[in-house]
């Protein structure tokens, strides 16, 4: 197996690209895919500072690494979910990464914001696995970006993540979710920052290879709550389809973005307003995060706090 | 397990409906689903004669049976694909079915129309498995219906078939195919008959149970060419999703029809014209069937017939 670029010994074969690369040329390929993503969706400029949401895993630390290498101004945001040792270890990885590269790392604790760590939140809410956590993360990312003055948050979602999310939305034809499935979500309100996914062109295998070849020290364990998550089941299905026809995931996601997404774009976007409790954007009167926090609070002190005591 | 209707011993459990039925009440359920399909999509009236395309399998003979029982005027159409013993046996089943119920059965031979039986056509064309056969069947169904004066052709496609087709179209976001995915395709040209699928609300398990309980003598073997077909791989994926969450196929297909299909409907339908060779409808100058027949003809007599000798 020879590198497509230099003919030297390849370290990685990319079947869907019908190509193989040596280590330096794979990293070049990776960087180019990120550059192409940023350019095609005008994700951010070199004048902006990008807030990179990092979990300590290969994707988000790989993303932060490639952005630093490309010369972008960045800062990190670590959301401490309070998931036992998993959170402690992943926080350590992020802090070590940031310190070694002299980058700012902001840390937000979910427990402080929602009133309990994620394991306890999971028990209180009837939302399916990952749902309350995802909601909290999106909320805190936006709040932290606004608080520290960043106009854009970048997340480490890769091609496999995006294809699996799309697959889930398509199985139920969730037209709302389909209209929001995009590598770049614009700011549609002064209190809503841009959200971008510069790794959406790269598969999970590719982000893992990048992190390995760049010697990034990341947390290998998956979140202990992700076991049995629907998104993992969908990833398995897509992996099987990919085995049979390489490029299946890419074609599914990119075909959607090119040909089908326009059909689902809202003619009239949902008007956003400010939550009456926290002031962050919401489509209703009280935002979903404040409802969740209220649920947690009532669960913790069921007898002493009346249902409306939050206000 | 008790019948939902009468409390008697159930013979079949339908997990996606969270119900079980005894034999007579399952047949009642089946008939009602067909009636609902016909009504919801105004497939045909009691004044029309429906041409039922039959292959000798459980779905199409089950469809013909339920339509006869419901008192519709029907006739059968058997397309002889010339696939060795498989075609002989399936033709026998159709002829015996029609004779026992005193129904007209029209027979068309693919070999006569396209110039060779399907096994030979498969070798000549580069189209993937089932593609040339599907094209020939759709063409001959329409031609036979026009020739014998039927305004509507009904096929035995069930929920699993329709969900698998949708799945394939979605994986590649084939927007043309998505716009045509419907239980009822209207006539958009005087030489194009309506095509309807009254079994689209019923799963493969349900059509098999109906054929069994109604003691229909059908061909159990699958077409020998279907092995390895993409549609079978897609059916497997959907079966796995169905196992995990009963109703997955139904939600996928019906969610599409309810929520997403309108997004893919063409604002300006493709104008149809008559093929310059055969006079049947086509979007171009020469229809796909005549192109295929020409390919077959040239392959059979490569030295004596010039490429344009067809005219």
Describe the structure.
Chain A is α/β, with parallel strands linked by helices. Chain A has twelve helices and ten strands. The first copy, chain A, has helices spanning 23-40, 58-69, 84-100, 110-114, 118-124, 131-148, 159-171, 175-180, 204-213, 230-244, 248-264, 288-300; strands at residues 12-14, 19-21, 49-54, 73-80, 105-109, 152-154, 184-185, 194-196, 273-274, 281-282. A six-stranded mixed beta sheet of chain A has the order 5-4-3-6-8-7, with helices on both faces. In chain A, helix 2 crosses helix 9 and helix 7 packs across helix 11. The longest helix of chain A has 18 residues, at 23-40. The radius of gyration of chain A is 20 Å and the shape is globular. The A-B interface holds A 170-173, 175, 178, 233, 237, 240-241, 244, 248, 251-252, 255-256, 258-260, 263-264 and B 170-173, 175, 178, 233, 237, 240-241, 244, 248, 251-252, 255-256, 258-260, 263-264.
Which keywords apply here?
311 residues, two-stranded antiparallel ribbon, 6-stranded mixed beta sheet, homodimer, 12 helices, alpha/beta, 49% helix
């Amino acid at each position: 197996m020879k590198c497509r670029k230099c003919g030297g010994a390849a370290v990685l074969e990319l079947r869907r690209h019908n190509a193989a690369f040596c280590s330096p040329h794979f990293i070049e390929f990776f960087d180019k895919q990120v550059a192409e993503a940023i350019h095609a969706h005008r994700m951010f400029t070199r004048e902006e500072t990008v807030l990179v949401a990092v979990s300590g895993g290969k994707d988000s630390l790989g993303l932060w690494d490639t952005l630093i290498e490309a010369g972008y101004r960045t800062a990190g945001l670590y959301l401490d979910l309070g998931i036992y040792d998993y959170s402690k270890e992943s926080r350590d990885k992020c802090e070590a990464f940031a310190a070694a590269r002299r980058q700012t790392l902001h840390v937000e604790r979910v427990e402080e914001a929602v009133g309990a760590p994620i394991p306890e939140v999971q028990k209180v809410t009837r939302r399916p696995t990952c749902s309350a956590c995802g909601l909290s993360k999106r909320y805190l990312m936006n709040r932290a970006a606004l608080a520290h003055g960043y106009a854009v948050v970048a997340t480490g979602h890769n091609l496999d993540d995006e294809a699996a999310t799309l697959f889930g939305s398509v199985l139920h034809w969730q037209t709302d979710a389909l209209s929001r499935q995009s590598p770049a979500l614009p700011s549609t309100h002064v209190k809503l920052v841009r959200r971008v996914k510069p790794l959406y062109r790269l598969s999970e295998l590719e982000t893992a290879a990048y992190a390995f070849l760049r010697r990034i020290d990341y947390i290998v364990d998956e979140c202990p709550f992700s076991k049995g998550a629907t998104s993992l089941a969908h990833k398995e299905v897509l992996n099987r389809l990919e085995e049979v026809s390489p490029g299946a995931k890419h074609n599914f996601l990119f075909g959607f973005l090119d040909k089908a997404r326009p059909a689902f774009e809202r003619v009239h976007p949902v008007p956003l307003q400010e939550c009456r409790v926290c002031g962050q954007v919401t489509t209703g009167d009280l935002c979903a995060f404040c409802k969740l926090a209220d649920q947690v609070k009532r669960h913790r002190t069921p007898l002493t706090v009346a249902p409306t005591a939050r206000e």
